[in-house]
């Protein structure tokens, strides 16, 4: 038996090796962002170096029935108990304009389901 540690494969390597006909948009790719849930229920969007790019603050929901929702970051649809509403100020607006979105409470699962960075890049885009 070899003393070398076992080689670890990324999801991208596995898909490309075992499922070469997978459409390009479904092939996992490294993300430029990391999502972290904070203790207030918000989400911090960090770059790979750990620098905070934008913070999404939680938005209180009206009490009562929680219908199913769809995550704006990973497109997963789930029960209203698994997703919440958040908002962030539009970069460059000095806090005068907000962007609202729906996102999963489980940021690790959301990060794993997100196919690309387009949804996060839209949050970071400057306002018109
Ligand atoms: Zn999600």
Overall description:
- A hairpin with a 4-residue loop joins strand 2 and strand 3 (52-59).
- The radius of gyration is 17 Å and the shape is globular.
- Helices cover 17% and strands 28% of the residues.
- It starts with 10 loop residues before the first helix and ends with a helix.
- The strands form 2 sheets. Strands 1-2-3-6-7 form a 5-stranded antiparallel β-sheet. A two-stranded antiparallel ribbon has the order 4-5.
- The chain is of the alpha+beta class and 128 residues long.
- The protein binds zinc ion.
- Zinc ion (ZN) is lined by residues 71, 73-74, 76, 103-104, 110, 113.
- Zinc ion is lined by residues 71, 73-74, 76, 103-104, 110, 113.
What's the Cα radius of gyration? Answer: 17 Å
Count of helical segments?
3
N-to-C series of helices and strands: HEEEEEEEHH
Global mean pLDDT: 89
First-last Cα distance:
61 Å
Number of strands: 7
Net shape? globular
Main pleated sheet = 5 strands, antiparallel
| Helix coverage percent | 10-25%
Describe the protein's topology:
Blueprint: H1 11-18, E1 33-37, E2 43-47, E3 52-59, E4 69-70, E5 77-78, E6 83-89, E7 98-104, H2 107-113, H3 118-124
Antiparallel strand pairs: 1-2, 2-3, 3-6, 4-5, 6-7
The protein binds zinc ion.
Keywords:
binds zinc ion, globular, 128 residues, two-stranded antiparallel ribbon, 17% helix, alpha+beta
In short:
The chain is α+β, with helices and mostly antiparallel strands and 128 residues long. Helices cover 17% and strands 28% of the residues. It is built from 3 helices and 7 strands, in the order αβββββββαα.
């Amino acid at each position: 038996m070899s003393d070398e540690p076992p080689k670890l494969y990324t999801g991208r390597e596995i898909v490309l090796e075992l499922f070469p006909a997978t459409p390009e948009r479904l092939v996992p790719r490294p993300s430029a962002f990391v999502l972290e849930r904070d203790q207030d229920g918000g989400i911090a969007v960090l770059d790979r170096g750990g620098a905070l790019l934008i913070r999404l603050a939680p938005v209180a929901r009206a009490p009562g029935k929680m219908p199913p929702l769809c995550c704006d970051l990973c497109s997963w649809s789930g029960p209203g108990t698994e997703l919440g509403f958040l908002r962030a100020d539009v970069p460059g607006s000095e806090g005068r304009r907000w962007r609202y979105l729906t996102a999963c409470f489980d940021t690790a699962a959301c990060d794993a389901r997100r196919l690309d960075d387009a949804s996060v890049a839209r949050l970071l885009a400057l306002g018109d």
